[in-house]
Write a structure and sequence with these properties.
heterodimer; A: about 325 residues; alpha/beta; seven-stranded mixed β-sheet; 12 helices; B: about 400 residues; alpha+beta; 9 helices; 20 strands; globular
């Protein structure tokens, strides 16, 4: 069955709501408007206002309410429209959701799923184009996942609800129109995935940069460099086994990160490669990140500020010549 | 100021190639710290310092071969200020051309991989490891990687070009060891007037004692007869200072501690005889552990400089190969060597009858400039007595 990434997300939501009466969806415009990105279109009509609830314009309040609902025995899915707005409920996410199990000595779990869109590329300007997955991946107590395929867009939500602890699911508007086949493969929240087999170079990416990494690998293949592409999928905890197995095979790595370079997730991945596979490397690990500027509104400048296929190709070739 | 000079790591060593510095300027060092790794003709040896201080300067680059006695580093003594003494550049001046030529500073922007002033060829970690496996010097290769770095492919291509010769370093090492043994043994036979004595020692009690001891130990903690023999030699030497020491510059210097060199044959051929310190005081378990460690490291090529320079007597045991008696050659500047043959069942007169008993022939080769046969004989008798009282600590 061929569907889009957006349809896969909606299908995952509908299945979750249908499967378990304790599941509810809360967020700004998720009900009557059908979601800012039309992901939840039709769900209010299907499941009613108790299960699909429009929230007032206070992320701090409704994320906190979601934590309370989770403590009270429900399985809430809270949608924060974009990661940019998640800075308002940051205290609830980091200080409460992530820490409550620890602070209560294991007495209270927070089975909460927070969905948010992230990333740039749609001319939404600096305040609506940021990528903070790496920030959240810094925090013990949170699980961070980044679906980059149709299967993961569909299946990661169900796996997140089954996890029993707070899981942040990052969705990529840049991929919403991407179409592909939905398989019946089981979806875990543990392993990175090799999306393309290769021998001479590993490109490590996640989320919206995975298709760019795959396109770069195709270009490189045309120039005689057979690149492997690893999709991290789970940003915390990182599955370094998969990454290291690939790097040990290819001996070279480029990490692609839509976040800013300094203190980024790419920095963490590179550091771990250096710690654990130094003697397998044939070149310093390279990376392609967002330029360290606020994302410009102008289209050509925005494109210049983001990781692009040509930049990945250039970084990869830099490891050979 | 302390000048740290390349020590002689054996009578056969007159130069060494500095492989690696283990310290850098500013590091504090204390007695016994490993300062550098030096390739002697026999092995890569970790060289220790016997003086404490702070490293002020390293005078020799890795890859350089220098004569024994060359100042290779400068240390500051406690409280001393840098620059208080004129720099001793002797080390640099005396050395042969370094393996890696120093490149002039590039007038344009330097390659980002290189710190200013450091002009060594970049070698990828994987290439360095592969080159090590092939016994090649990766810095001598042309690099095809980024910034001219040497990659795994470069090493493997060079390895293929070199063909079977790529495996040559092992052969070279064997030849070097042969040369070293030749030098030491020629000197020994040229300079040392050896005398030889032997004694057949009943080993029933030692064997029984060892079997009983080992039956209560885990397999990994079991003791070999070689350790029992080493202990007996060390304890017997207590009354024979003229057999335990070194002859240097026409003078004999007896040693208070028994630092026993153990002759270890290497799998690729040749042998080394690194030492275990203070054997006279070691409990048997500790001695066994040190012996096992020494053999392992000797074969892995990771011995320390003190282990080469310390020994005051050597023990060689050829029992493994099944010979009855050895006639060993003294390793200068030591003055004695004890040999053991195989522990074998032999007819043995006991009372009025003849019984089968395990016995071993112990031999002593000693330096007649320092001791006489009368004293050597008394030593072998004492050794025999000690081996028959294995239970005594």
């Amino acid at each position: 069955m061929t569907i889009t990434y957006r349809e896969a997300l909606r299908m995952g939501l509908r299945e979750a709501l249908a499967r378990d009466p304790r599941v509810l969806l809360v967020g700004e415009d998720v009900g009557r408007y059908g979601g800012t990105y039309a992901v939840s279109k039709g769900l209010l009509e299907e499941f009613g206002p108790d299960r699909v609830r429009d929230a007032p314009l206070s992320e701090l309040a409704f994320v906190g309410a979601g934590i309370g609902a989770a403590l009270g025995g429900l399985k809430p899915i809270v949608e924060v429209m974009t990661v940019n707005f998640s800075l308002l409920p940051l205290d609830q996410i980091v200080n409460t959701a992530a820490l409550l199990r620890h602070m209560s000595g294991g007495q209270f779990a927070v089975p909460l799923v927070i969905r948010m869109s992230t990333g740039a590329g749609r001319q939404l300007a600096a305040q609506h184009s940021q990528s903070f997955e790496g920030w959240y991946a810094h925090v013990p107590g949170l699980k961070i996942v980044a679906p980059a395929t149709i299967d993961d867009a569909h299946g990661m939500l169900g796996a997140a609800l089954a996890d029993g602890n707070p899981v942040l699911v990052f969705e990529y508007p840049a991929l919403f129109e991407m179409a592909g086949d939905l398989s019946t493969a089981a979806i875990d929240l543990a392993r990175a995935a090799v999306r393309r087999q290769g021998t001479r170079l590993t490109i490590i990416a996640y989320g919206g940069c995975v298709p760019k990494a795959l396109a770069a690998a195709e270009k490189l293949a045309g120039e005689g460099i057979n690149a492997e592409v690893v999709d991290l999928r789970v940003l915390r905890p990182l599955d370094m086994d998969t990454v290291l197995a690939s790097v040990r095979k290819t001996r070279r790595a480029v990490v692609v990160d839509e976040g800013w370079r300094s203190g980024s997730l790419s920095a963490e991945v590179m550091a771990r490669i250096m710690e654990q596979a130094f003697y397998d490397l044939d070149a310093p690990v390279a990376r392609v990140c967002r330029e360290e500027v606020p994302i410009p509104y102008a289209k050509h400048l925005e494109e210049a500020a983001l990781p692009q296929v040509d930049k990945i190709v250039a970084a990869a070739k830099g490891l050979f010549q | 100021m302390i000048e740290f000079r390349l020590p002689s790591l054996g009578a056969d060593m007159d130069e060494g190639k500095l492989l690696e510095w283990k310290v850098k300027p500013g590091d504090a060092v204390k007695k016994g710290d490993v300062v550098a790794v030096v390739d002697t003709s026999k092995a890569a040896v970790e060289v220790e310092t016997w003086q404490a201080g702070t490293v002020e300067a390293l005078l020799v680059d890795p890859g350089t071969t220098v004569p024994v006695g060359t100042a290779i580093a400068r240390f500051l003594e406690a409280g001393e200020k840098p620059g208080a003494a004129p720099p001793a550049e002797a080390g640099r001046a005396a050395v042969a051309a370094p393996v890696t030529a120093r490149l002039p500073a590039a007038p344009v922007a330097p390659a980002p991989l290189q710190a200013p002033g450091v002009a060594r060829r970049p070698v990828s970690p994987a290439a360095r490891r592969r080159a090590g496996e092939l016994g090649m010097d990766p810095e001598a290769l042309e690099g095809s990687g980024p910034h001219g770095s040497v990659t795994v492919d470069d090493v493997e291509k060079a390895g293929r070009r070199a063909g079977p010769a790529a495996a040559a370093p092992a052969v070279d090492r064997v030849a070097e060891i042969r040369k070293a043994i030749a030098a030491a043994m020629s000197r020994s036979k040229r300079e040392i007037p050896h005398y030889y004595l032997s004694e057949t020692i009943p080993m029933q009690r030692a064997q029984d004692w060892l079997a009983a001891e080992n039956s209560r130990r885990p397999i990994t903690g079991r003791i070999l007869m070689a350790a029992v023999q080493l202990r007996a030699v060390a304890r017997a030497l207590a009354g024979f200072p003229e057999l335990n020491g070194t002859w240097q510059g026409g003078l004999y210097q007896p040693s208070a501690s028994v630092n026993t060199g153990v002759a270890i044959s290497l799998r690729q051929g040749g042998l080394v005889a690194p030492g275990i310190r203070d054997v006279q005081d070691l409990p048997i378990d500790e001695l066994m552990a040190r012996l096992a460690d020494l053999v392992k490291r000797a074969r892995a090529g990771t011995l320390r400089s003190s282990e080469f320079s310390d020994p005051t007597i050597t023990v060689t045991n050829l029992g493994d190969t099944g010979v009855e008696t050895t006639f060993p050659v003294i390793y200068p500047p030591q003055v004695a060597i004890v040999g053991f043959g195989r522990v074998a069942m032999r007819p043995w007169a006991e009372g009025a009858g003849i019984v089968a008993r395990p016995v071993v022939v112990a031999t002593l080769a000693a330096d007649h400039r320092v001791s006489d046969g009368h004293r050597g004989a008394a030593f072998l008798v004492e050794l025999s007595r000690r081996l028959q009282e294995p239970e005594k600590p």
